Amino acid sequence: MQMTQPVRAGMSVEGDLDRYRRVRAVLPSLAEGLSSEDLTVQSMPDASPGKWHLGHVSWFFEVMLLGARQGYRPFDPRFLSLFNSYYDALGARVDRPMRGLMTRPGLAEVMAYRAEIDVRMEALLAGGLNEGLERDLFELGLNHEQQHQELFLMDILHLMARSPLDPAAYEIEPRLGEGQVVARGGWIAFEGGLTQIGASAEGFAFDNERPAHRVWLEPYALAADLVTNGDWVRFIQDGGYQRPELWLSDGWALVQTEGWSAPLYWGRGASDWTVMTLAGRRPVDPAAPVRHISFYEADAFARWSGRRLPTEAEWEHAARAEPSAFTNLDSEAWQWTCSAYSPYPGFRPTEGMAAEYNGKFMANQMVLRGGSFATPLDHRRISYRNFFHPHQRWAFTGLRLAADGAPEAAAMDDDATDAFRHDLIVGLSERQKTLPPKWFYDAEGSRLFEDITRLPEYYPTRQEAALLRRVGPLWAPRFGAAAVLVELGSGASEKTRLVLDAAPDLAAYVPIDISPAALGEAAGRIRADYPDLKVLPVVGDFEHLSPPPSEAGSGRRIGFFPGSTIGNLTPDAAIRLLRSAREILGQGALFILGVDLVKSPATLIAAYDDAQGVTAAFNRNVLVRANRELGADFDVPAFAHRAFWNGEQSRMEMHLEATRPMTVHLGKLAFRFGEGETIHTESSRKFDQASVRELAEASGWKLEAFEVSDDPAVALALLAD
Ligand code: SAH
Ligand code: AVI
C-alpha cells in the first residue's frame, strides 16, 4: 500500500483544508481491512488499540483547536477523558494499560466521532485559522496525527505477532515513503569541529528540536549503510547474545530475564530465520536493514563490530553535510544514537495546552534519528528527535555504526570508482568481454561471498579451515616472537583466527582487503576478540602492496594468503604478486599460501554453480554495482550465470551471459552484446604440488612444506624467503 503523498514543489501550494484531508485520510485507510477485534485489543501496556489511535488523534484536534474556540460543545464529554493520552493538565484519563478494555465506544462510534470532528475542523478551516497559536496547534495536530500513523502500524504489528496464526495485517507491507535503497558500502568521514544542529526558527518542528545551537565534534565517520539482517545473523552466530562483555549491564540483565536471542519478531524456521512483518511471517532478508532491536542490542552490536553508536549531533551533522552519501537515511528504520533524550540548551516547551507534548519525557530515554518506512514522507526531518526507552523493541528501530576518527574503511574513494569505470570500459571493449573479479567485493559482494563459504557445494573454505587447524600449530613455532601477520584478501578474517590461536604471541595483524565494508567489520571483530593484538587494517589492492605500517614493529613478517584467492589471478599476475610480497615482507619472511587442487569437473562445477543460486547472485552483483556506482544500465536479470571447467588452463571460469541481444550504456559509451555473448568475470585456477612449486620458485620463494586436506582436497603451502 503506498499512501497518498504530499503535494510537491512545482505544483500548486496545498491549502490547509487539502492538507488536513490528506493527512486525516491515512489512518482510516490503514484501518480498512482490519476487523473491529483487531482494532480493539491491546497487545501490551506500551501499545494502544487501533481504535484508540483513531479516536485519540481526533480528540487532539477537538481539545487543542475546536475546544479553544468560544462556546464550543464537545461531541461527547466522556470522550475528553477516554481519548486523553497523557495530558495531566487536561484532566482525567484512562490509564494506558487499560485502553484495550474499551469495548465501548465501538469502532463505528469512533469512526462517527472522527467524521464529526472532520466536519467541525473543516468548518473551522473554511473560516480561516488565526495566525499564531492556533495555526501552530493545527500544525502540531497534523504532525501528531502522522506520528500516530506510524504508532498504529507498530502496534498492529505487535498485536499480530502475538497471535499463533502469524496473521498478515496487510497483503503487502504498507510504506508511507519511498522504497528501500540497495546498500552502498563504506564509511563517510567528517572532520567535525564547531558545527550547528537543531531546527531553525522557521517552519514546523517539534519543540524538542529547538533551538538550533552549536556543538563541537571530534573527527568521526558514519557507515554509509544501515546494519543489515545478514550482519545481525553473523552477530548471533558469533555468540552476540551470549557474551556479557559486549553488553551494558542493564542490557545484559534484560538478555537474561527476557531470554533475548534475536531481534523482536524473529523466529527459527525449518532451516533459517523468519520474521513477523505487517505482511505476515517471512524469511529474514539478509540484505534488508535490521529492525526491532533495543538500544541495548544496537549498542552490543556496535561493540562487537569494534565500532560505536553515533551521537545525535554526529548523525545530524553528517545528514546535513552529505545526505546523498548515505543509504536509507530516513526511509527504513530509525537509528539509535548514544545520546540521552534531554533538552537542548535554551529549550522552551510549546506554549499553552500542548506544553506537555515532549518535554516531560526527557529522562531515561535515548534519541533515535532518521525515520522508518512507516514514517510519512512529509513528516521526516533531519532535526527530528524520536525517543524510546532503551529496552523497547517494538518501534521500527535499526542502527548505523559510527567510528572515531577517519576509519581505515573510509578510504574507499573516488579513485576506486574511477578505477572500476576504467576496468569496465577496457574490459567491455575486448573481443572476449572481461571484468576483473576484484570488483565483486562491495559490501553486498563480500556478504554474498560469506554466504558462498557456507554452501554445501562450496568445499574450499571448510576444507582449508580444517587443514589450517591441523598445520597451524606445526608451523607457528617458526614465526618467532612478536611476528606480524600480513593477510591478503582477508575478507571476514575468519580463518585468521585459526592462525592467531596457533600463534598467541603475534604482535600485530595487518589485514589487506579491497572491500572497505568487509575489512572494517572484520577488523572490529578481531580487535574485540584479541585485545592484545595490534590490528592495523589497510584498504587496498593486493596487486599493489606497500610495506606494513611501522606500528606493526620489527618482528618477522608472515604473509597469509588463504582461500585460493591467488587462483583468481593470471599466472603472471600471481608471480608478480608473490615477488612483491617477498620484497615488502623482507628478510626471513614466511608465507602461508592456500590453493585449491585439481579434481573432478563435477565437484568443481557444483561448487561454482550451487543449487541455491548464491554464486549466481554473487556473479550478477558486479553488474548491480556497476549500475549503482557508475550509472551503467545493465539489465541484470537478462544476464545468466555460467560456470565451466577449462581443462586446458586448469581453471574454473565464471561468466555472465547475455540471454538476448542488448546494448549497455556507460555515460556516453555504448557496448553491444550478441545473444549468448559473455563477460568473463572470474577464473579460479586449480593447482597441484608441481604447479605450486613452479609458482613459488618463479617468484623467489622456497617451497618448505605442502600439506593436503581430505577430499575434496585443498592444500596449504609454507613458503620461506
Ligand atoms: N581470505 C578469505 C576471503 C577470500 S574472498 C577466505 O579465504 O575465505 C577474496 C577476498 O579478497 C575478498 O575479501 C576480497 O574483497 C579480496 N580481494 C579480491 N581482490 C582483491 C584485490 N585485488 N586486492 C585486495 N583484496 C582483494
Ligand atoms: C575468492 N575466490 C578464491 C573464490 C573462488 O573460489 O575463486 C571466489 C568465488 N567465486 C565463486 N565462488 C567463490
Care to describe what's here?
The chain has 721 residues and is α/β, with parallel strands linked by helices. The chain folds into four domains: 13-161, Four Helix Bundle (Hemerythrin (Met), subunit A) (Up-down Bundle); 187-404, paralog of FGE (formylglycine-generating enzyme) (Alpha-Beta Complex), CATH 3.90.1580.10; 415-440 and 602-685, no CATH class; 456-599 and 688-720, 3-Layer(aba) Sandwich (Rossmann fold), CATH 3.40.50.150. The protein has 18 helices and 26 strands. The strands form seven sheets. Strands 14, 15, 16, 17, 18, 19, 25 and 26 form an eight-stranded mixed sheet that branches. Strands 10-9-8-11 form a four-stranded mixed sheet. Helix 1 runs parallel beside helix 5 (133-161), helix 2 (50-64) runs parallel beside helix 4 and helix 2 (50-64) runs antiparallel to helix 5. The longest helix is centred in the N-terminal third of the chain and has 29 residues, at 133-161. It is elongated. The termini are far apart. 46% of the residues are buried. Residues 452, 460, 563-565, 567-568, 608, 615, 682, 684 line the site of N,N-dimethyl-L-histidine. N,N-dimethyl-L-histidine (AVI) binds at residues 452, 460, 563-565, 567-568, 608, 615, 682, 684.
What are the main properties of this structure?
33% helix, 4 domains, 721 residues, binds S-adenosyl-L-homocysteine, 8-stranded mixed beta sheet, binds N,N-dimethyl-L-histidine, disordered N terminus, Four Helix Bundle (Hemerythrin (Met), subunit A), paralog of FGE (formylglycine-generating enzyme)
